Amino acid sequence: MLELTTTIIAAASDGDWPGWLLAAGPVGAASFYWAVWMAYRNTNKSHSYEHETEVVVSNMTGNDVKVGTNNGTRDRWIRGRNDDKPRQRL
Amino acid sequence: MSDPTSTPPQQPAAPPDPPAAAAAPEAAPLPQPIADALPEPGDVNTSNAKGDGLTKCPRCGSAEIGPVPGTDQLRCAFCRFEWVAANFMASVGFDSPIDQLQGTVRTTGVADIDQSASHIITIKCQGCGAEVVINTESQLQSRCHWCRQVLSQQTQIPNGAVPDAVLPFRLTHDQAVEAVRKFASRRRMFALKRFKQEFVPENVVGVYMPYLLVDGNAHGDVAGHGEIKTRQYQRGSDNNKTTYYDADVYQVTRSFDFTVDDLTIESSSARANQDTRMNTNNVINTILPFDTKNSVKYDANYMGDFTSERRDLDVDAVMPVARAQMLSIARQKATDSTRYDRGIRWESEQLELKGTRWVAVLLPVWLYSYYEKKSDGSAFLHYIAVNGRTGETMGSIPVSVPKLLLVALTIGTVLEGIAIAIVANF
């Protein structure tokens, strides 16, 4: 379904033809299924220990050194962003 | 109300060592099995001096003691005297500053489990002399079937069943029933038909789940790159615009000390397995945290009608989990100390664990379970869990897949119909 959606969007981006709208059916059905499944089964839930544990930080040191620029990028976020995934090991 | 447990009984002064003791030759080493069963020299002794069997009311001597629903109190059913066991953390000095922790500090309640230890304990009733069997896998108390007095397993045994501390149930059965009913009633539409038919929230049961609490004194080092947006602009024709961004790139490093207080980790291997394809243990994990600061010294009389699960994981077994969670906390704290509007790509992380302090505790959970038998013959156990202190509720409701699929496809078809109409008229 994802491939079909990508294909349709790619084809639609060639011109003004709003063909991407044709993805609305499959995407809508899949999104609804996923949202209901998660609301019922809660398989993505766990204790948020990163935020809910009592932690005291001290002696914080560090640097923020400008090392260059990243101009003209189309990416909304830094490539490989992981500051929102603290459980992902490096 | 006064706390009788806080007043230590008057003990006769210990007799002085006989002079011969000083000159006695060094004691012979203990046989290996006995030496293994003894606590390690550095362990904080949390063993209970009450002794197994009858635990008597400090006022009237009755053994009919049980928890008072909705409170942390114990009550004698005979004379109605009420009291609270001593706060655990304060009683063993575990409320001391965590930033001074060095090495691994353990209590006797988290001692390594002897795999060969029996879970079946026989207690001799002091009331009538009968021998009563308790299966410590799920119980720490039993009633003598001859004289009807309640017998308790109070002392620590090497199979991990008896903890250091217990956090009493604060939420009553009625409140738990209401929480389960509310959770399930919001998810009725696509729930499995049999689940709805067999739904009896009154069947929710209180279980004391085993956890290890760990305090950690650590140092974290995290490094990576972050970006700050300097410009945002669009290129292209009116109908085909693309957004572009300019950003400054920074090298980011953070180095800091931090302390973690009462990180709570499952110490039952069955609950620690949180593979959501195989079980719904993650919903029990989600109802954490508990107000563990209010844990009291273990007293089997808090068990009442509740069951308990046995700890079967040692500190060494959960240490990797504790380290991983503390590293995640370090990452989060490092992120919290920055302001990069295009985010950060952390590239290295290190944790130096200077000291940890471990406590075995039983925490109160109300559990409603549903055993789903699937069409292929397999079975799946769903839980709705309610935190016995805060009331936080999380659960897994079995879904009627054909019904959900039908509605999802219907919605998809309607959306597709609208989309085709728009495209056709374009």
Automatic annotation (TrEMBL), chain A:
The chain crosses the membrane at residues 20-40. The keyword Transmembrane helix applies. Residues 61-72 have a biased composition (Polar residues). Residues 61-90 are annotated as: Disordered. Residues 73-90 have a biased composition (Basic and acidic residues). Keywords: Membrane, Transmembrane, Transmembrane helix. This is Uncharacterized protein.
UniProtKB/TrEMBL annotation, chain B:
Residues 1-19 have a biased composition (Pro residues). Residues 20-35 have a biased composition (Low complexity). Residues 1-53 are annotated as: Disordered. PANTHER family: FLOTILLIN BAND_7_5 DOMAIN PROTEIN, J DOMAIN-CONTAINING PROTEIN. This is TFIIB-type zinc ribbon-containing protein.
